[in-house]
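Quick question: what would this complex look like in 3D?
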Amino acid sequence: EVQLLESGGDLVQAGESLRLSCATSGFTFKNSVLSWVRQAPGKGLEWVSAVGGSGDNVQSADSVQGRFTISRDKSKNTLYLQMNNLRVEDTAVYYCAKVHVGYYDSSGYFDFWGPGTLVTVSS
Amino acid sequence: QSALTQPRSVSGSPGQTVTISCTGTSTDVGDSNYVSWYQHHPGKAPKLRIYDVSERPSGVPDRFSGSKSGNTAFLTISGLQTEDEADYYCCSYGGSYTWVFGGGTKLTVL
């Protein structure tokens, strides 16, 4: 059974840093693309960042580019999101998701999700 | 990329059929066969309902179906059940590990 469980959410001040973790199990971690998606209060889902199986192919949304860094540790089957210089508008529930990507980058969708962790940034 | 456009809310009675639209542009939905749909009950993990426009993952009831016409994708839920009441999001894959979501639609089962 595929499982993803986020942790690390907290209440922080604007300008501070926070690192989220996502512990995974039930699938071959080293081969899987993983991603972070967030949902601000009263808003919809927003894709944040994704990382390839080897860890060297990384993409991030413009809204977090230069401030957030996604990474993975294959020895711990864990995904991370390092969030620096946090802003009030980064307040959201952050979800970790396993991604299915087809051959030759055909298709891409989030097939399993964690329950999320809440990050609150105060001014 | 701008968020895809969805109606804020739709509603239907048990047993009825509802359709949720998801409108993008010729550079995302219109140019992609990689539209997916997610069901989200508040406080829970989102669940994949449709991928690649019209494909249904194993275990998802065949009451859920997807289609696309031009720049607009559709999620249709037939034989509405009370447990279908949730928020629904469309999503378009832009390639190279990038995605854009729709704004979400709240489905109310009356």
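Answer marked as accepted. Chain B is about 0% helix and 45% strand.
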